[in-house]
Structures are given as structure tokens and as C-alpha cells.
Amino acid sequence: MPLICSSMTNSATIIMQWFMYGGGVLGVGLVLGLVLPHLIPSRKRKDRWMN
């Protein structure tokens, strides 16, 4: 029985590690998605139809 318990604990650890990696990727993507549009200078839109 201890072998099964340690196997389940190892599996849970691996699953938790993958969730942490996924959360890290999600967090980095969210930060980049919010910060990058403010860092890149926007184009001046003087060629609009009405202006």
C-alpha cells in the first residue's frame, strides 16, 4: 500500500508542477499583453476619412 500512496503523491506533485508552469505562462502573457501596448508608440491617425 505505501507504494501506491507514494505513486499518487508523485503524480499529484507532477500535476501541481504543470499547473504552476501554466499559471506562470498565463501571468507572463497577461503582463505582456497589458504593458506592451503602452510601450509601443501608437501611430498618429491623420489620414482618417473625416479629419
Task: Walk me through this protein's architecture.
Helices cover 75% and strands 0% of the residues. The chain has one helix and no strands. It is rod-shaped and about 70 Å long. The protein has one domain (1-36). By secondary structure, it is an all-alpha fold. The mean pLDDT is 82.
Task: Describe the SSE topology.
Blueprint: H1 2-39
Determine the N-to-C terminus distance. 77 Å
Helix content: over 70%
| Number of DSSP-assigned strands | 0
Total of domains: 1
* Low-confidence runs of at least 5 consecutive residues: none
Mean pLDDT, rounded to whole units? Answer: 82
**Structural class determined from secondary elements:** mainly alpha
What is the ordering of alpha helices and beta strands? Answer: H
- Global morphology: rod-shaped
Main sheet characteristics: none
Computed Rg: 23 Å
Into which percentage range does the β-strand content fall?
A: under 5%
Q: State the helix count.
A: 1
Offer a quick outline of the entry.
The chain is mainly α and 51 residues long. It has one helix at 2-39.
Which tags fit this structure?
about 50 residues; mainly alpha; 1 helix
